[in-house]
UniProtKB/TrEMBL annotation:
The keyword Lipid biosynthesis does not apply. This is Cytosolic Fe-S cluster assembly factor NBP35. The lineage of its organism: Eukaryota, Viridiplantae, Streptophyta, Embryophyta, Tracheophyta. The gene is NBP35. It comes from Oryza barthii. Its cofactor is [4Fe-4S] cluster. GO terms for biological process: iron-sulfur cluster assembly.
Length: 299
Protein backbone atom coordinates (compact mmCIF):
# COMPACT_ATOMS: atom_id res chain seq x y z
CA UNK A 1 0.00 0.00 0.00
CA UNK A 2 1.42 3.41 -0.99
CA UNK A 3 1.17 6.56 1.08
CA UNK A 4 -2.37 7.86 1.80
CA UNK A 5 -2.98 10.46 -0.96
CA UNK A 6 -5.09 12.57 1.40
CA UNK A 7 -2.28 12.69 3.90
CA UNK A 8 0.15 13.66 1.16
CA UNK A 9 -2.25 16.46 0.13
CA UNK A 10 -2.53 17.67 3.72
CA UNK A 11 1.22 17.71 4.22
CA UNK A 12 1.65 19.70 1.00
CA UNK A 13 -1.04 22.20 1.96
CA UNK A 14 0.24 22.64 5.50
CA UNK A 15 3.77 23.32 4.26
CA UNK A 16 2.91 27.05 4.13
CA UNK A 17 1.63 27.11 7.73
CA UNK A 18 4.35 27.82 10.30
CA UNK A 19 2.59 27.05 13.57
CA UNK A 20 -0.45 24.91 14.30
CA UNK A 21 -2.31 25.21 17.59
CA UNK A 22 -5.23 23.04 18.58
CA UNK A 23 -7.74 24.47 21.08
CA UNK A 24 -9.49 21.80 23.14
CA UNK A 25 -11.90 21.53 26.06
CA UNK A 26 -13.34 18.69 28.09
CA UNK A 27 -16.85 20.14 28.11
CA UNK A 28 -18.91 22.45 25.96
CA UNK A 29 -19.73 25.96 27.06
CA UNK A 30 -16.46 26.66 28.87
CA UNK A 31 -15.37 29.34 26.40
CA UNK A 32 -13.20 27.34 24.01
CA UNK A 33 -14.51 29.07 20.88
CA UNK A 34 -14.37 32.47 22.55
CA UNK A 35 -10.74 31.79 23.41
CA UNK A 36 -9.93 30.54 19.88
CA UNK A 37 -11.55 33.65 18.39
CA UNK A 38 -9.79 36.10 20.70
CA UNK A 39 -6.47 34.27 20.34
CA UNK A 40 -6.79 34.69 16.57
CA UNK A 41 -7.65 38.38 16.91
CA UNK A 42 -4.68 38.87 19.25
CA UNK A 43 -2.21 37.14 16.92
CA UNK A 44 -3.55 39.12 13.95
CA UNK A 45 -3.15 42.36 15.90
CA UNK A 46 0.47 41.35 16.54
CA UNK A 47 0.85 41.50 12.73
CA UNK A 48 0.95 37.73 12.26
CA UNK A 49 -0.80 36.06 9.34
CA UNK A 50 -3.50 33.96 10.97
CA UNK A 51 -5.94 31.24 9.93
CA UNK A 52 -8.76 30.08 12.20
CA UNK A 53 -10.23 26.68 11.40
CA UNK A 54 -13.46 25.69 13.11
CA UNK A 55 -13.94 21.92 13.18
CA UNK A 56 -16.68 22.02 15.79
CA UNK A 57 -18.91 20.55 13.13
CA UNK A 58 -22.05 20.15 15.23
CA UNK A 59 -21.87 23.57 16.86
CA UNK A 60 -19.91 25.98 14.70
CA UNK A 61 -19.93 29.30 16.58
CA UNK A 62 -16.79 30.77 15.05
CA UNK A 63 -18.50 32.64 12.16
CA UNK A 64 -20.63 34.58 14.66
CA UNK A 65 -17.72 35.21 17.03
CA UNK A 66 -15.70 36.72 14.17
CA UNK A 67 -18.61 38.78 12.87
CA UNK A 68 -18.87 36.70 9.69
CA UNK A 69 -22.38 35.28 9.88
CA UNK A 70 -24.05 34.72 6.53
CA UNK A 71 -20.79 34.75 4.58
CA UNK A 72 -20.03 32.22 1.88
CA UNK A 73 -16.92 30.33 0.99
CA UNK A 74 -15.55 30.83 -2.48
CA UNK A 75 -13.62 28.37 -4.51
CA UNK A 76 -10.67 29.24 -6.68
CA UNK A 77 -8.28 27.09 -8.64
CA UNK A 78 -6.10 27.07 -5.51
CA UNK A 79 -8.84 25.58 -3.33
CA UNK A 80 -11.44 26.90 -0.89
CA UNK A 81 -10.77 30.50 0.06
CA UNK A 82 -11.16 31.35 3.73
CA UNK A 83 -13.49 34.20 4.68
CA UNK A 84 -11.37 37.16 5.75
CA UNK A 85 -12.02 39.38 8.79
CA UNK A 86 -8.88 41.37 8.03
CA UNK A 87 -6.35 40.79 5.30
CA UNK A 88 -4.25 38.82 7.81
CA UNK A 89 -7.08 36.88 9.51
CA UNK A 90 -8.88 34.21 7.49
CA UNK A 91 -11.57 31.88 8.82
CA UNK A 92 -12.95 28.53 7.69
CA UNK A 93 -15.97 26.85 9.26
CA UNK A 94 -18.74 24.49 8.30
CA UNK A 95 -20.97 27.31 9.53
CA UNK A 96 -20.32 29.03 6.18
CA UNK A 97 -21.67 26.04 4.31
CA UNK A 98 -25.01 25.68 6.06
CA UNK A 99 -27.84 27.32 4.12
CA UNK A 100 -29.67 28.02 7.37
CA UNK A 101 -27.79 28.76 10.61
CA UNK A 102 -30.46 26.88 12.56
CA UNK A 103 -29.84 23.67 10.65
CA UNK A 104 -28.60 20.81 12.78
CA UNK A 105 -25.59 18.95 11.44
CA UNK A 106 -26.31 15.31 12.14
CA UNK A 107 -23.36 13.47 10.75
CA UNK A 108 -21.70 10.28 11.70
CA UNK A 109 -17.98 9.98 12.35
CA UNK A 110 -16.76 9.09 8.83
CA UNK A 111 -18.51 12.07 7.23
CA UNK A 112 -17.11 14.44 9.86
CA UNK A 113 -13.65 13.01 9.34
CA UNK A 114 -14.06 13.48 5.60
CA UNK A 115 -14.82 17.16 6.05
CA UNK A 116 -11.92 17.69 8.46
CA UNK A 117 -9.62 16.07 5.95
CA UNK A 118 -11.00 18.31 3.23
CA UNK A 119 -10.60 21.43 5.38
CA UNK A 120 -6.93 20.59 5.94
CA UNK A 121 -6.26 19.59 2.36
CA UNK A 122 -8.31 22.04 0.31
CA UNK A 123 -8.33 25.39 2.14
CA UNK A 124 -6.02 27.89 0.53
CA UNK A 125 -4.56 29.63 3.60
CA UNK A 126 -1.52 30.88 1.76
CA UNK A 127 1.64 31.62 3.75
CA UNK A 128 0.50 31.97 7.35
CA UNK A 129 2.23 32.16 10.71
CA UNK A 130 -0.51 30.50 12.78
CA UNK A 131 -3.34 28.09 12.17
CA UNK A 132 -5.64 28.02 15.21
CA UNK A 133 -7.91 24.97 15.17
CA UNK A 134 -11.06 25.16 17.28
CA UNK A 135 -11.98 21.54 18.04
CA UNK A 136 -15.28 20.17 19.36
CA UNK A 137 -15.45 19.45 23.11
CA UNK A 138 -14.38 16.07 24.43
CA UNK A 139 -12.27 13.40 22.81
CA UNK A 140 -14.15 11.88 19.92
CA UNK A 141 -13.48 10.61 16.41
CA UNK A 142 -12.84 14.13 15.16
CA UNK A 143 -10.04 14.59 17.65
CA UNK A 144 -8.32 11.42 16.66
CA UNK A 145 -8.48 12.42 12.97
CA UNK A 146 -7.34 15.99 13.42
CA UNK A 147 -4.46 14.93 15.63
CA UNK A 148 -3.41 12.23 13.21
CA UNK A 149 -3.43 14.64 10.26
CA UNK A 150 -1.80 17.53 12.07
CA UNK A 151 0.90 15.31 13.51
CA UNK A 152 1.87 14.28 10.00
CA UNK A 153 2.56 17.95 9.27
CA UNK A 154 4.01 18.94 12.67
CA UNK A 155 1.77 20.41 15.36
CA UNK A 156 3.01 22.88 17.97
CA UNK A 157 0.56 21.62 20.54
CA UNK A 158 -2.78 22.00 22.26
CA UNK A 159 -4.27 24.61 24.55
CA UNK A 160 -6.96 23.24 26.83
CA UNK A 161 -9.69 25.57 28.08
CA UNK A 162 -11.60 24.83 31.27
CA UNK A 163 -13.66 26.52 33.97
CA UNK A 164 -12.56 26.30 37.64
CA UNK A 165 -15.09 23.80 39.01
CA UNK A 166 -14.30 20.17 39.66
CA UNK A 167 -16.93 18.93 37.17
CA UNK A 168 -15.07 20.69 34.40
CA UNK A 169 -11.61 19.77 35.68
CA UNK A 170 -12.44 16.06 35.73
CA UNK A 171 -13.01 16.22 32.00
CA UNK A 172 -9.86 18.26 31.49
CA UNK A 173 -7.82 15.51 33.07
CA UNK A 174 -9.23 13.19 30.41
CA UNK A 175 -8.30 15.72 27.73
CA UNK A 176 -4.76 15.98 29.10
CA UNK A 177 -4.44 12.21 29.17
CA UNK A 178 -5.73 12.05 25.60
CA UNK A 179 -3.00 14.47 24.48
CA UNK A 180 -0.35 12.52 26.37
CA UNK A 181 -1.54 9.25 24.88
CA UNK A 182 -1.57 10.48 21.28
CA UNK A 183 1.64 12.45 21.77
CA UNK A 184 0.35 16.01 21.27
CA UNK A 185 2.40 18.49 23.31
CA UNK A 186 0.30 20.49 25.77
CA UNK A 187 1.06 24.20 25.46
CA UNK A 188 -0.98 24.76 28.57
CA UNK A 189 -4.32 25.05 30.29
CA UNK A 190 -6.41 28.22 30.46
CA UNK A 191 -8.85 28.69 33.32
CA UNK A 192 -11.73 30.66 31.86
CA UNK A 193 -14.68 32.20 33.72
CA UNK A 194 -12.37 32.34 36.68
CA UNK A 195 -14.48 34.55 38.92
CA UNK A 196 -16.60 37.46 37.79
CA UNK A 197 -14.93 40.81 37.33
CA UNK A 198 -17.12 43.72 36.52
CA UNK A 199 -17.05 47.45 37.06
CA UNK A 200 -19.74 48.63 39.49
CA UNK A 201 -21.23 50.90 36.86
CA UNK A 202 -22.10 47.78 34.81
CA UNK A 203 -24.05 46.20 37.67
CA UNK A 204 -27.80 46.40 38.03
CA UNK A 205 -28.79 46.90 41.65
CA UNK A 206 -32.11 45.48 42.85
CA UNK A 207 -33.98 45.66 46.12
CA UNK A 208 -35.55 42.29 46.94
CA UNK A 209 -39.06 42.42 48.40
CA UNK A 210 -42.09 40.19 48.96
CA UNK A 211 -43.73 41.48 45.82
CA UNK A 212 -40.61 40.91 43.72
CA UNK A 213 -37.53 42.99 43.04
CA UNK A 214 -37.45 46.68 42.37
CA UNK A 215 -34.70 48.27 40.37
CA UNK A 216 -32.51 50.55 42.43
CA UNK A 217 -29.61 51.01 40.01
CA UNK A 218 -29.92 54.74 39.60
CA UNK A 219 -30.24 55.27 43.32
CA UNK A 220 -27.28 53.00 44.13
CA UNK A 221 -24.96 54.54 41.55
CA UNK A 222 -25.83 58.06 42.69
CA UNK A 223 -25.24 57.02 46.29
CA UNK A 224 -21.80 55.65 45.41
CA UNK A 225 -20.95 58.65 43.26
CA UNK A 226 -21.70 61.05 46.09
CA UNK A 227 -20.05 59.16 48.92
CA UNK A 228 -17.25 57.05 47.43
CA UNK A 229 -16.76 57.86 43.74
CA UNK A 230 -13.44 55.98 43.66
CA UNK A 231 -15.46 52.76 43.96
CA UNK A 232 -16.69 53.38 40.42
CA UNK A 233 -13.16 53.10 39.07
CA UNK A 234 -12.66 49.76 40.81
CA UNK A 235 -13.62 46.30 39.59
CA UNK A 236 -15.92 44.14 41.70
CA UNK A 237 -14.74 40.51 41.88
CA UNK A 238 -16.75 37.46 42.81
CA UNK A 239 -15.87 33.78 42.81
CA UNK A 240 -18.84 32.46 40.87
CA UNK A 241 -17.65 28.88 40.62
CA UNK A 242 -16.22 26.90 43.48
CA UNK A 243 -12.45 26.88 43.11
CA UNK A 244 -11.74 26.01 46.74
CA UNK A 245 -10.00 22.83 45.62
CA UNK A 246 -7.35 24.86 43.81
CA UNK A 247 -8.84 25.05 40.33
CA UNK A 248 -6.92 24.45 37.14
CA UNK A 249 -3.55 25.67 38.40
CA UNK A 250 -3.36 23.00 41.09
CA UNK A 251 -4.45 20.34 38.61
CA UNK A 252 -1.73 21.48 36.20
CA UNK A 253 0.89 21.17 38.92
CA UNK A 254 -0.34 17.69 39.78
CA UNK A 255 -0.36 16.57 36.17
CA UNK A 256 2.88 18.26 35.18
CA UNK A 257 1.45 20.51 32.45
CA UNK A 258 1.88 24.28 32.06
CA UNK A 259 -0.78 26.61 33.44
CA UNK A 260 -1.25 29.55 31.11
CA UNK A 261 -3.45 31.76 33.29
CA UNK A 262 -6.93 32.77 34.34
CA UNK A 263 -9.47 34.72 32.35
CA UNK A 264 -12.28 36.15 34.45
CA UNK A 265 -15.93 36.07 33.53
CA UNK A 266 -16.44 39.44 31.91
CA UNK A 267 -19.85 40.44 30.55
CA UNK A 268 -18.09 42.76 28.11
CA UNK A 269 -16.14 39.82 26.67
CA UNK A 270 -19.38 37.92 26.20
CA UNK A 271 -20.77 40.98 24.41
CA UNK A 272 -17.71 41.26 22.18
CA UNK A 273 -18.08 37.56 21.28
CA UNK A 274 -21.79 37.98 20.55
CA UNK A 275 -21.03 40.94 18.31
CA UNK A 276 -18.08 39.25 16.60
CA UNK A 277 -15.52 41.79 17.80
CA UNK A 278 -11.99 41.65 19.09
CA UNK A 279 -11.78 42.37 22.82
CA UNK A 280 -8.42 44.11 22.36
CA UNK A 281 -9.34 47.14 20.29
CA UNK A 282 -10.97 49.35 22.90
CA UNK A 283 -10.98 49.53 26.68
CA UNK A 284 -14.39 47.89 27.07
CA UNK A 285 -13.08 44.46 28.04
CA UNK A 286 -10.67 45.85 30.63
CA UNK A 287 -11.53 42.99 33.01
CA UNK A 288 -10.57 40.19 30.60
CA UNK A 289 -8.44 41.51 27.71
CA UNK A 290 -5.21 41.98 29.72
CA UNK A 291 -5.49 38.40 31.02
CA UNK A 292 -6.00 37.07 27.50
CA UNK A 293 -3.11 39.15 26.18
CA UNK A 294 -0.73 37.81 28.82
CA UNK A 295 -1.71 34.24 27.92
CA UNK A 296 -1.07 34.90 24.23
CA UNK A 297 2.36 36.32 25.07
CA UNK A 298 3.29 33.06 26.80
CA UNK A 299 2.74 31.01 23.63
P1 LIG B 1 -17.43 26.56 24.05
O1 LIG B 1 -16.73 26.86 22.76
O2 LIG B 1 -16.53 26.00 25.10
O3 LIG B 1 -18.68 25.76 23.88
P2 LIG B 1 -18.15 29.36 23.99
O4 LIG B 1 -16.85 29.99 23.63
O5 LIG B 1 -19.17 29.21 22.92
O6 LIG B 1 -17.90 27.97 24.68
O7 LIG B 1 -18.69 30.19 25.22
C1 LIG B 1 -19.98 29.97 25.78
C2 LIG B 1 -20.60 31.31 26.15
O8 LIG B 1 -19.88 31.91 27.22
C3 LIG B 1 -20.55 32.33 25.01
O9 LIG B 1 -21.73 33.09 25.05
C4 LIG B 1 -19.36 33.20 25.35
O10 LIG B 1 -19.48 34.49 24.84
C5 LIG B 1 -19.41 33.20 26.86
N1 LIG B 1 -18.09 33.38 27.48
C6 LIG B 1 -16.98 32.65 27.26
N2 LIG B 1 -15.96 33.07 28.02
C7 LIG B 1 -16.43 34.12 28.75
C8 LIG B 1 -15.88 35.01 29.74
N3 LIG B 1 -14.63 34.89 30.14
N4 LIG B 1 -16.69 35.96 30.25
C9 LIG B 1 -17.98 36.07 29.85
N5 LIG B 1 -18.56 35.28 28.94
C10 LIG B 1 -17.80 34.31 28.40
Amino acid sequence: KGPDPDLVGIVERMATVKHKILVLSGKGGVGKSTFSAQLSFALAEMDCQVGLLDIDICGPSIPKMLGLEGQDIHQSNLGWSPVYVESNLGVMSIGFMLPNPDDAVIWRGPRKNGLIKQFLKDVDWGEIDYLVVDAPPGTSDEHISIVQYLQATGIDGAIIVTTPQQVSLIDVRKEINFCKKVGVPILGVVENMSGLRQSLSDFRFVKPGDAGETDATEWALNYIKERAPELLTMVACSEVFDSSKGGAEKMCNEMGVPFLGKVPMDPQLCKAAEEGRSCFVDQKCSASAPALKSIVKKL
